[in-house]
Design a protein that fits this description.
Length: 282
């Protein structure tokens, strides 16, 4: 019952977001994404667990369990609220998983990881005066803290869920401003992160990333849209934590906001699908 109320809250907040004006981004949540959010209470094939239950940060994790032992994959969308392709793709994935169950292992999907940042279309949530502003950036809070600031607690709860389900592959879906292979000279970074798969280097991750790059680049004709593999996720990110602390493949998927949203979503979905197939989940 509490869950239903919480969902209602999410839905209302996202509707407000759709109607709000004055934001710099022209993005508004797509009809598909809104429909999938509205349908959270009707998801039948996953167990739903609330993370940060009872707080304004509460958000569901959906556990699709085949009941047959195999590989377990954790997937986050919405870590950064100003990167809509991340959670738009994760929401579509939720619908795909509902219709196409894992044949072995499990998928644990958290489509709206930092819900408040999604509502605010921002990268971070505010932190108390004097605190490091990156404590409001979920992707700089790993390893988390059980009684830290909200995003540190969120990271902690995601880690608990990851350990509890003996996750073998960890994926965090993002997007970036500039193409890695076509970065403007004036950019802060020498190379943008758009169209990259960032991975914590270990043997299993290298094997997956090679397959991912081959599979996705085969579908791409435009040279700057080709994906590149980059080692070493940023310190204190989710992929970094998964690689360093759990010694499992940890990935950050990045598309580029220079392209249409649907295109970015489809790239993410193809990458995820490839991992699920390599893991014999699909
Ligand atoms: Zn990001």
């Amino acid at each position: 019952m509490g869950f239903k109320n919480m969902n209602l809250k999410i839905i209302i907040m996202l509707l407000v977001l759709v109607m709000s004006v004055g934001c710099s981004s022209s993005y508004t949540i797509t009809d598909d994404a809104q429909r999938i959010i509205n349908n959270f209470p009707n998801i039948k094939n996953a167990k739903q667990v609330q993370i940060m239950k009872g707080t304004q940060y509460a958000t569901p994790a959906f556990i699709f369990d085949s009941g047959i032992s195999g590989k377990n994959v954790m997937i986050l969308g919405g870590t950064h609220g100003n990167e809509p392709a991340g959670y738009e793709a994760a929401l579509r994935l939720l619908e795909q998983l509902e219709n196409k169950l894992p044949k072995s292992g499990k998928v644990i999907l958290i489509p709206l990881a930092n819900k408040q940042s999604i509502i605010n279309k921002s990268r971070r949530i505010p932190v108390p005066d004097g605190a490091d502003y990156e404590r409001g950036n979920l992707n700089r809070c790993y390893p988390g803290k059980e009684s830290g600031l909200p995003m540190e607690q969120m990271a902690y709860e995601i880690e608990q869920l990851t350990r509890e389900h003996k996750v073998n592959v960890f994926i965090d879906i993002h997007e970036a401003r500039f193409f890695h292979l076509d970065t403007p000279k004036k950019s802060k970074r020498k190379k943008g992160l758009g169209q990259t798969i960032i991975y914590y280097p270990n043997e299993k991750a290298s094997w997956i990333v090679m397959n991912l790059i081959d599979t996705i680049n085969e579908t791409i004709d435009v040279s700057e849209e080709q994906f590149s593999a980059i080692e070493r996720p940023i310190l204190n990110s989710a992929a970094w934590w998964a690689g360093k602390y759990l010694e499992i493949p940890g990935f950050t998927f990045e598309t580029t906001q220079k392209m249409d949203l649907e295109k970015r979503i489809n790239f993410h979905l193809l990458l995820v699908k490839t991992v699920l197939e390599l893991s014999e989940i699909w």
